[in-house]
Write a structure and sequence with these properties.
FAD/NAD(P)-binding domain; single chain
Length: 80
């Protein structure tokens, strides 16, 4: 694969095994109190002014909902 012709300062590829990627993400999420739920599929998301609602399909086909009231960030990166 030729990367030299790309308009980038980084004309190379970096690869990380899936296992390591998952370990890094799991550690980061754990530090923030987030529990990873295996065997669940996100099947819908709806964004509102003050929250986000999600529909989750769990093992066995059971559907459940989730709602967040987390702080939002503006496009500039500042919280509002």
């Amino acid at each position: 694969m030729e990367l030299q012709g790309l308009d980038t300062r980084f004309p190379y590829m970096l690869m990380l095994p899936q296992r390591q990627t998952e370990e890094i993400l799991a550690t980061h999420l754990d530090r923030h109190g987030v529990v990873i739920e295996r065997g669940a599929e996100l099947v819908g998301v709806e964004q509102f002014d003050d929250h986000v609602a999600a529909a989750v399909l769990r093992d066995g086909g059971r559907r459940s909902g989730w709602r967040s009231r987390a702080r939002r960030s503006s496009p500039s990166g500042t919280s509002r």
